[in-house]
Amino acid sequence: MSFYLECKKMKRTGLVPAFFCGGLLAAAVPVLNMAFRSEMYLGLDAPPIQILMEANWQMMSMLNILLVTAGACLMYHTEYADNAIQRICTLPAKESRLFFGKSAFLFLMCAVILAVEAAGMAFCIFHWFGHFGGLWSVFKSFGYAFLLMLPAVFGSLWIASACRNLWVSLGISVVCIFTATLLPVKNFALSLFFFAMPFQILADTPPQAARRFMIAAVAELLVIAAGELIFLKLRRSFT
């Protein structure tokens, strides 16, 4: 029910077309890169998905995370602007349902934009590399990207839920994103920062390391969810 209400509320914000347009923009990155600089990549000795992801994923994932952050801040801004949070706190309803409803909506939006980007990546493989057996590798790469993006969704929503002012939550999230871009991608410990995990690429990650990242993503989801529940309980106790 909470997810359905979030979908109805987001119809009035323009968030759905914004996500879709952002996904199209990110999907256009590898297409335009190959259209203008294909000679740089066609001679490389590596699987097509690895070549394309290494060349384009940093920009694509940056666009994805900025979309998620902006979406999370906007979703909570509408609640604070209309004093919906205060009204929920006076009711026996659980405020955590609001958080998880918004999370489910953002999860769905992430799946949509990654599907659009996967289609763009598959087009590049078929058109420029003539590799018709690479669809499974695209599916695996973007499934991995989806899992590693989920902690960033939870983290963005946690920051947005803690700040009444839209610009404060947006500023904190943007600083965290740009901090993540400065962290070395190959350093496992630093890459566990939830805004840094979406920059990981499955194609050039050893299987054992990829499994560790997936386990870490699930663990971070549980930790952030537990932290949000504790935060909401404390805030409700002192307000």
UniProtKB/TrEMBL annotation:
<keyword id="KW-1133">Transmembrane helix</keyword>
<protein>
    <submittedName>
        <fullName>ABC transporter permease</fullName>
    </submittedName>
</protein>
<feature type="transmembrane region" description="Helical">
    <location>
        <begin position="141"/>
        <end position="160"/>
    </location>
</feature>
<feature type="transmembrane region" description="Helical">
    <location>
        <begin position="104"/>
        <end position="129"/>
    </location>
</feature>
<feature type="transmembrane region" description="Helical">
    <location>
        <begin position="213"/>
        <end position="232"/>
    </location>
</feature>
<feature type="transmembrane region" description="Helical">
    <location>
        <begin position="167"/>
        <end position="193"/>
    </location>
</feature>
<dbReference type="Pfam" id="PF12730">
    <property type="entry name" value="ABC2_membrane_4"/>
</dbReference>
<keyword id="KW-0472">Membrane</keyword>
<feature type="transmembrane region" description="Helical">
    <location>
        <begin position="57"/>
        <end position="77"/>
    </location>
</feature>
<keyword id="KW-0812">Transmembrane</keyword>
